[in-house]
Amino acid sequence: MERIRALGRVYWYYKAEARPRRKMGHVNIAGSSVGEVVERAREALRLIYGRDFPRLVMRELSPAQPRPVLYLTSGGTPR
């Protein structure tokens, strides 16, 4: 868990029951460049899921931010 916290801010939803495909929390990751954010996100996904996600869906949240902030979605089967 400490390795994930070093990559970004972790938010847990404290749900009573964990089920497959149920969102139990999320991680916010910021960096000085898009490349840095993507690499941190890939590392967080490797730590959480134990595998690589070659295709990530990204959307910039606020172009006015002084540094990149991306919304990353993972799930389903990598193509």
Provide the descriptors you would attach to this structure in a database record.
single chain, alpha+beta, 2 helices, two-stranded antiparallel sheet, disordered C terminus, globular, 4 strands, 79 residues
Q: What are the secondary-structure elements, in order, as H or E?
A: HEEHEE
Q: What is the rounded Rg?
A: 13 Å
Strand content: 15-25%
Strand elements, count? 4
The percent range for helix content is 25-40%
What is the average per-residue confidence, as pLDDT, rounded to a whole number?
A: 77
Number of helices: 2
> Terminal Cα separation, in Å?
28 Å
**Morphology call:** globular
| Physical arrangement of strands within the biggest beta sheet | 1-2
Secondary structure blueprint with pairings:
Blueprint: H1 2-7, E1 9-12, E2 25-28, H2 34-49, E3 57-60, E4 70-73
Would you mind describing this structure in some detail?
The strands form two sheets. Strands 1-2 form a two-stranded antiparallel sheet. A two-stranded antiparallel sheet has the order 3-4. It starts with a helix and ends in a 6-residue tail after the last strand. It has two helices and four strands; from the N terminus they run H-E-E-H-E-E. By secondary structure, the protein is α+β, with helices and mostly antiparallel strands.
In short:
This protein has 79 residues and is α+β, with helices and mostly antiparallel strands. The protein has two helices and four strands, in the order H-E-E-H-E-E.
